[in-house]
Amino acid sequence: MSERWMTIRVYGNILYTTGAWGIEGSGDLSTASPLTEQDIEGWMKDCADHGVTAVLWQSNCGGTSTHPSPVFPLPGLPLHPHNEHWVPIWEFLGEQVRQFDTLNTGIAAAHKYGLRFVYSLCFWDFVDSPFEDSVFHPKLWMVSIRKLLNPRLSRNGEPFFGVPCYAEPETQDLILKHVRDVLERGVDDLAISLFAHTQGLGVNQPCYYGFNPPLVQAYQERYGLDVLHESFDATALYSLYGDFYTEFLRRLHQETSQRGQRLIPCTTYDGRWGWGGIGGQQLYNYYAQGDAVPTVEPGCGIEFQWRRWVQEGLADALMVLAPPPDAVTLARAVHQEASLPVLLWRKINPGRPSEEWSMYHREAAQVGAGEIDGYVVHAMVTVNYGDYPEKLWALIQ
Q: What is the pTM of this model?
């Protein structure tokens, strides 16, 4: 039987469930209802009643966590979002997640209804983080080349806020501290999602970010070139970042394996990925929507070394992002080579045209027929967009 996952984007589900966000984004905070533990139980019952086998619990929001964490603060005041327009909704969200521990409640409710609880951390989605100086110091973001060459630069020399650099040991240590606390709570699996608001953000210049000292030093040691002052191969730099990321997965897998939990990283079928500018957006549009093959390098990139992960036993399953209309075929090729469970990850928006929904249904049918091991639907189950929830449930079933 194939795995059928539904993503619960906790912050969004809270805002829609309480009425803080209403139909198509409208809402009235004056009439919003407080979040209750019964609301979260209702999310899980809905999922179980409609054939979902696991929930992918996406907990981070704007650089904060929607549950208590030894690393990340809760949303809400006194932390201010960068956009003052968000202050009222941000304050309301903070009030809701301080009423009770949403993570513990979610785990208990999922297990009550026979669902696996997969904790998801979006490693590259700390956009609009209001606390760069307190948790992720600016030096831990992907650093821009201009800032390194001229430290007095400010705006155009900023690092890529929202995209941490996992070549930095301190970044790895911060995430590991958070993850250990989560794993001890009794989640079933840990998954790493590619969902990010940062795809097309940052300075629109290819290979502009990712010049953190560990990466610069590693390139010098391997290729004998100073990437700050000499021409270099962007693909080789992405591969080096992939080396650091693979090392981080080793550390994560040590934590999950000793507790009997699965580590399920996400990858594209060919291992190519990146963020920033037109190139970053082109990558997403290609892999997620089947648009044209990217022609511009992203602001920063990485090689997902999924073959190494498999060889070293660092992944217990893989979430794969592959372009339609042949996504299942491409994901099946990964499955055949990796000999691991492979789940196709798909972000589904309410406003997509009917022909795209037909494509989703074809993919889901192929998964249901056993061509690959599962389908991961990234959506918000409580979104009040006409017939959107019903269409999602039909897709899962």
A: 0.93
